[in-house]
Amino acid sequence: MKINHPALINSLRLAYSAEKAAAYAYVGHARSLKNPDEKVAVQQIENDEWEHRKNVLRIMQQHEVSVSKYFEFKYNLIGLLISFSCYFIGRFMPYFFAGKLESGNVCEYFRMMKYFHSIGITKHDKVLHEMGIKEKEHEVFFLEMIKDEKWMPLFEKIFNWGVNNSLNDVDLEIENDPNYSEKKEYCKN
Fold it and tell me: Whole-model pTM above 0.70?
């Protein structure tokens, strides 16, 4: 079923290409790490991003949404540049900026769900919800890795993300409560 919702189409195209950029970035991030446990964790997050990309493509195909060649080129380049930079910018900054990025990505999937609802489509709720929650788990992981670093207070103040600031309102403790309604409307703002 072809959709006519420009904002939703743009969100799908952007998410599809941005997931590739994130996956590429995590390749360099993982390779730049010395701690083997951290390396494995970041590689798992990379795998999650590839899985999200597959899920978004399936949704796009169901609704005859084409892949944006522009976004593919742009985000391919961005992902490769970030991947390469991880070897030179130390341990803190890749974790910090990955966490901030993932924090914003959480709402992208909940926003897509709202766009679909606005045109009467609910069949993608489960996968979009799961991807949004997975992005929140990534955010929490990255924050946990650097929350006590000396640079955190300064970066949090400058970039408005960190221990006391998130770009979304998803609460994993509530989300994992079996009595909690899956119909919670996240990312209202």
Answer: yes
